[in-house]
Design goal:
Elements (H helix, E strand, L loop, with lengths): L13 H12 L4 H17 L3 H11 L8 H13 L13 H20 L3 H14 L3 H17 L3 H4 L2 H14 L3 H17 L3 H17 L3 H17 L5 H13 L3 H12 L3
Length: about 270
């Protein structure tokens, strides 16, 4: 498939992404046209309009019988995401919608893995963590996704490693398993440092520092957060979460004046 969705997606601007997909749709045919429409449906889901996403996906179902695995896997993924995803409020995800999402993600993983589409397999496995909210199940599904990533030679699948390790670190941190969480966050940071996304690297470094504070390693955490403050200022992107951590760290060191300084910076309008 010549279609490169990564050049069309801006997940921070789903409406803009929809415009790009619709423009590409003008000259697309066959499975490419189907895939573009699944992504239009996803853009509606990211904006919270899950009914519209499902309405569009339902119109595509008759064409799926003759479609290839990538189109069928992507359709199943987006069908599942329309019932359970990070964009849903927890109270809106019912047992019935969880069951529908679970079946769709299982279908997507089965289709994708049968033809070696590791990136889509990983996507489907990682989405199961939104279906099963218990920490044990979130950890299980994230580790399953990481197994696929570790075994894959496909760059699009390997690109999932940092975000999956971050997700696993969060699950472990939430359970108070700070040492294990730190290990995952440090691995995520190593991956991010190999890439070109400076903002994502700063987030990964923040996660390490945040967990160091939870472990009582205050001086190490402080050094990292101070580095993040300098990097954010240099990039013109000051981060209130960095200020919040610096406030907490200085309070832990009984440095009330510095803590108050960062409290003011955190609360300053931007």
């Amino acid at each position: 498939m010549a279609l490169d969705l990564s050049t069309l997606w801006d997940f921070r601007q789903p409406a803009l992404s929809e415009q790009r997909f619709r423009a590409a749709l003008q000259t697309a045919s066959g499975d490419d046209a189907l895939i573009l429409q699944t992504q239009i449906a996803r853009s509606h889901g990211l904006r919270g309009d899950f009914a519209k996403a499902r309405e569009l996906l339902a119109t595509l179902q008759p064409a799926l019988e003759s479609a290839g695995a990538p189109a069928r896997a992507r359709h199943a993924l987006e069908w599942g995401r329309s019932f359970a995803s990070a964009a849903h409020r927890a109270q809106d995800v019912t047992p019935e919608s969880r069951a529908e999402a679970r079946a769709a993600f299982e279908r997507a993983a089965r289709i994708a893995s049968s033809v070696g589409l590791d990136e889509l397999t990983v996507d489907a496995l990682h989405m199961q963590a939104f279906v099963d909210p218990s920490p044990a199940e979130q950890e299980r599904w994230t580790r399953e996704a990481l197994k696929v990533v570790s075994a894959s030679t496909r760059p699009d699948a390997r690109a999932w490693e940092a975000s999956l390790r971050n997700n696993l670190g969060m699950v472990l941190h939430d359970q108070g398993r700070f040492g294990e969480a730190l290990g995952e966050f440090e691995l995520a940071l190593i991956v991010r440092e190999r890439g070109q996304d400076a903002a994502a690297t700063r987030v990964a470094r923040w996660m390490v520092a945040w967990t160091l504070r939870a472990l009582g390693r205050i001086d190490e955490a402080l050094a990292l957060q101070q580095r993040l403050e300098r990097e954010g200022d240099a990039a013109g992107e000051p981060d209130p979460y960095v200020y919040e951590e610096l406030e907490a760290l200085h309070r832990a060191r009984h440095e009330a004046e510095l803590a108050a300084h960062y409290a003011r910076k955190r609360q300053a309008p931007r």
